Amino acid sequence: MTLLPPFFISTIVILFGLVIGSFLNVLIYRLPLDLSIVKPGSHCPACSNPVRWYYNIPLLGYLMLRGKCAECGVKIHWRYPLVEFLTAILFYFGFKHSLDIAQFRIWFFIASGIAIAFIDLDHRIIPDELSLGGWAIGLLTAYWDYRNGFGHLILASLGGFGFFFAFAMIYEKITGRVGLGGGDIKFMGMIGAFLGFGGIWSSLVISSIVGAVVGVAIGKIQKNENILKTSIPYGPFLVLGAFVELFFEVSKWMNI
User: Fold this and answer.
1) Where are the domains positioned within the chain?
2) b/e string for 125-151 if b means 16 or more Cβ within 10 A?
3) For a surface tag, which of 6, 14, 189, 196 has the fewest beta carbons within 10 Å of its beta carbon?
């Protein structure tokens, strides 16, 4: 791969990201509904007609269809091209010019994070297949981590899970309300397994700040009497914090 022109390699990475993004769209739609991600093939949710292969080309298919089903004319959700584009861009920025297992470890975390964020937005859940499955993959591939040691990642994954679990229990006991879902807590274990204690710190701080701002804004728009009780999915903000740490290592700026 090092002998190939950089532009050619970058193009391959972006195309690979588009393909994975197309698969993530299937995962995001079907996994929360307990549907098979293999059968049936791609089809319109409205009319159930199969999607022709050339309309399945990431991004281009959406443009050719002009955002509508070719058979029934129902609008295709803007999320589909967004997920494909976002996956391709993040795969590109996560590319370290080395296609070893460490690189695929990064891509796996990016893909899982995107799926978790959009599923949580739609259904207010983080499936165990992604959180616990991702946690397991993170630990199994921790040996090839390019930032932290194997022992550090194990401790961070247990620490992230344990801290959030304890916080959730204390919060619920004091307020009588559920502040964090089980999926969020398991996802913190996954973040620790991939990004270490720095990832946990960044996810906690960034998600708290951004989540609070968004929550207040939504509360005001909805004209809630108690803005602090506005309910929003927390997973997307945890993903945002984790991605910021992945790409910018903000924890190192703070000497954490």
Assistant:
1) 1-99, 101-256
2) bbbeebbbebbebbbebbeebebbeee
3) 6
With a pLDDT cut of 70, the percent of the chain lying above it is 91
pLDDT of the residue at 8: 85
Between 233 and 2, residue with greater pLDDT: 233
CB-based contacts of 1, cutoff 8 Å, min separation 6: 9, 97, 99
Q: Is the pLDDT score of 97 beyond 60? A: no
Residues near 152 by beta carbon (within 8 Å), at least 6 away in sequence: 196, 197
| DSSP-assigned beta bridge partners for residue 43 | 50
Mean pLDDT (the chain, rounded): 88
Yes or no: say if 195 and 242 are a contact pair by the CB < 8 Å rule. Answer: yes
CA distance 196 to 242: 10
State how far the Cα of 227 lies from the Cα of 44, in Å rounded to an integer: 38
Rounded-to-integer distance, Cα 160 and Cα 92, Å: 28
The Cα–Cα gap between 191 and 243 comes to 10
At 185, the pLDDT band (50, 70, 90 cuts) reads very high
Q: What is the pLDDT of residue 140?
A: 93
Of the candidates 248, 221, 242, 243, the residue with the CA atom closest to the CA atom of residue 232? 221
